[in-house]
Design brief:
Helix content: over 70%
Order of helices and strands: HHH
Number of helices: 3
Distance between the termini: 52 Å
Largest sheet: none
Shape: elongated
Length: 71
């Protein structure tokens, strides 16, 4: 199995466990932590970096809509 497929599988498992947490279900936090660690290391090996998403302020968004409507 290649690293990309492994990374995708780990992400799916993490999403499944996060979904259980959001429903208030118990999960094995040791397994969750290990999966997260492996996922992070594989992402690093693949050159995938986390980036902070920068969203516009409400004012900037409304101004952009106004600008688009004027054109």
């Amino acid at each position: 199995m290649d690293l990309v497929a492994t990374c995708a599988s780990l992400r799916c498992e993490l999403e499944k466990l996060e979904g259980k947490l959001s429903l208030g279900e118990d999960i094995n936090l040791d397994v969750f932590g290990r999966l997260a660690g492996h996922y992070r290391r594989i992402c690093e090996a693949l050159g995938i970096e986390r980036r902070k998403r920068v969203l516009p302020s409400v004012e900037d968004y409304v101004a952009s809509l106004t600008d688009e409507a004027a054109t």
